[in-house]
Amino acid sequence: MTRYTTIRLSQISSKIEPELVKEADALRPGDEPEVIIVEMIDGKVTGLIDGYHRTAGYIKWARQNGLALDDVEIRVVASDDEELLAPAAEPGYRQAEALAKIYAAADAAEAAA
Fold first, then answer.
1. CA separation, residue 64 to residues 6, 34, 39, 77 (Å)
2. Which residues are bridge partners to 29 per DSSP?
3. Residues 38, 52: contact at Cβ < 8 Å?
C-alpha cells in the first residue's frame, strides 16, 4: 500500500549523515512541494527512499529552532510496494518515472479515502 501519512522526524534522522545536515539549507517541514518517500512495513519506517536533502534541511531547521526531532512531525509518502520502491531508490533513467508513480499511487489512495 502506498499512502500519505505523518511520522516524526526522528524516525528517519538516523539515515542522514551529519555532514549533509551541515551543508543543507534549513527547511521548515511543509514548505516543500514534494514530500519525502519512505519504505514502511508493518507501521515501521524501514528505509528512506527519496528526500535525503529535504530531511537534512528539516533537521537543520529543527535544531536552529531548538526543537527535538521527536517533536517534529512531517508528512511523507509511505509505501511497502517493492515494485515501486526498488526503481525509485536507484539513481538512473527509471528513477523519475518510479517517483512519479509513487506520488500518483499516494494521490489515488488519498482521493479514494
1. 22, 22, 28, 25
2. none
3. no
Secondary structure of 8-67 in HEC code, one letter for each residue: EHHHCHHHCCHHHHHHCCCCCCCCCCCCEEEEEECCEEEEEEECHHHHHHHHHHHHHCCC
Residues 60/21, Cβ–Cβ less than 8 Å: yes
- CA angle at residue 75 from 92 to 27, to 5 degrees? 75
pLDDT in tens, 35-52: 999 999 999 999 999 999
Q: Per residue of the chain (113 residues), give pLDDT as tens.
A: 999 999 999 999 999 999 999 999 999 998 888 899 999 999 999 999 999 999 999 999 999 999 999 999 999 999 999 999 999 998 888 899 999 999 999 999 999 98
Where do we find the cell 543543507?
24
